[in-house]
């Protein structure tokens, strides 16, 4: 095998969904946008449906069709971007439910797909998606008359439990939705951990399902092994890679492995990441290049066939720290060249 192998632990994924579900007394959806956070929306959604998930969320209508094929006709699939220009046919054919974000979208939906189910997304201060308060006041009578399935909003700072924005958004959400008699959803992974006030009728976890923070008790879902292309000996003083950015200060053995920034191993990992051979750490040396990475394997007993970047010693969040980013970006950047293996197969 000459490309990296990404192994996806589907039982851990299902266990994470169940664990998040058990933290609330309400329903638990599943966010599978961005191709199931990079792991494959079809396989992820199929497994979560098997675990009991009935409501799935994608970012845009285009992503919904693959999820529909995976989960069958019964499950509900919601689209965060709502009903955009040109979406009507796709929403209708794949049976997707747009979360409408503005008066414009509401009008478009009523005109293009009258009677087709929808939800409403409200902005409670994040200023990203959803009806502004004044627009909601104007449109609510019409929207409510047409039976929205859900009213939802999204927290901006839920991964910081003490952030005052959480209580602020909760208060605004209540003011915008109390007494309307429509089921409500406010929380993603972070909001679930904020406690029952934030749960309402359904939660929408994404990252926690895939083993990422802020769900600290998550089981790891991904393992990434990269094959070694060749190994060589360096004498002290020799340099490695573009820009000569690493120089051996002792006689060294350098492994060149298959994988680079074209595979989502972003360049800011240069000189920072650690690979693993079993329990032995091996530092990345020099710069990450497009298809190749160089690793110091001097301390190993022999040349390895592959090195592990994501595994028992290093999860998506610790790799993200080395790269100066977040677990979400590590996951959704995982390269398309990797062979994706499922465990259990
Ligand atoms: C991405 C997203 C989620 C899931 O968030 P996580 O932090 O991954 O759990 C939920 N709701 C909305 C609106 C989102 O955009």
Automatic annotation (TrEMBL):
Cofactor: pyridoxal 5'-phosphate
Known pathway: Amino-acid biosynthesis; D-alanine biosynthesis; D-alanine from L-alanine: step 1/1
A Pfam family matched in the record: Ala_racemase_N
Catalytic function, reaction form: L-alanine = D-alanine
Coiled coil: none
InterPro entries linked: Ala_racemase, Ala_racemase/Decarboxylase_C, Ala_racemase_C, Ala_racemase_N, Ala_racemase_pyridoxalP-BS, PLP-binding_barrel
Catalytic site positions: 33 (proton acceptor), 242 (proton acceptor)
HAMAP family: Ala_racemase
Family membership noted in the UniProt record: Belongs to the alanine racemase family.
PANTHER family in UniProt: ALANINE RACEMASE, ALANINE RACEMASE, CATABOLIC-RELATED
Protein name per its UniProtKB record: Alanine racemase
Source species taxonomy: Bacteria, Pseudomonadati, Pseudomonadota, Alphaproteobacteria, Rhodobacterales
């Amino acid at each position: 095998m000459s490309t990296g192998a990404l192994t996806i632990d589907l039982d851990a994924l299902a266990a994470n969904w169940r664990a998040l579900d058990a933290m609330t007394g309400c329903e638990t959806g599943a966010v599978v946008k961005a191709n199931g956070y990079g792991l494959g929306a079809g396989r992820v959604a199929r497994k979560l449906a098997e675990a009991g998930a009935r409501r799935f969320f994608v970012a845009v209508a285009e992503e919904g069709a693959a999820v529909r094929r995976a989960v069958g006709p019964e499950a509900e699939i919601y689209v965060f971007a709502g009903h955009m220009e040109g979406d009507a046919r796709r929403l209708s054919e794949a049976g997707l439910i747009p979360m409408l974000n503005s008066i414009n979208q509401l009008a478009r939906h009523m005109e293009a797909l009258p009677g087709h189910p929808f939800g409403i997304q409200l902005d409670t201060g994040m200023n990203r998606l959803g009806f502004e308060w004044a627009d909601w006041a104007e449109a609510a009578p019409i929207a409510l008359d047409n039976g929205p399935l859900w009213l939802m909003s999204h927290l901006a700072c839920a991964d910081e439990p003490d952030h005052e924005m959480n209580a602020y958004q909760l208060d605004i959400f209540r003011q915008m939705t109390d007494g309307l008699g429509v089921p409500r959803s406010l929380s993603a992974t972070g909001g679930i951990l904020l406690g029952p006030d934030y749960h309402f009728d359904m939660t929408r976890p994404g990252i926690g399902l895939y083993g990422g923070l802020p769900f600290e008790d998550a089981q790891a879902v991904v393992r990434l092994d990269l094959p070694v292309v060749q190994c060589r000996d360096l004498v002290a003083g020799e340099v490695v890679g573009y820009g000569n950015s690493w120089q051996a200060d002792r006689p060294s053995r350098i492994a060149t492995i298959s994988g680079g920034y074209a595979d989502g191993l972003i360049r800011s990992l240069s000189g920072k990441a650690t690979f693993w051979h079993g329990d032995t750490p091996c530092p990345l040396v020099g710069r990450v290049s497009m298809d190749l990475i160089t690793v110091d394997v001097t301390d190993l007993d022999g040349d390895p066939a592959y090195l592990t970047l994501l595994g028992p010693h290093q999860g998506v969040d610790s790799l993200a720290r080395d790269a100066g980013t977040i677990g979400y970006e590590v996951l959704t950047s995982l390269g398309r060249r990797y062979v994706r293996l499922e465990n259990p197969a």
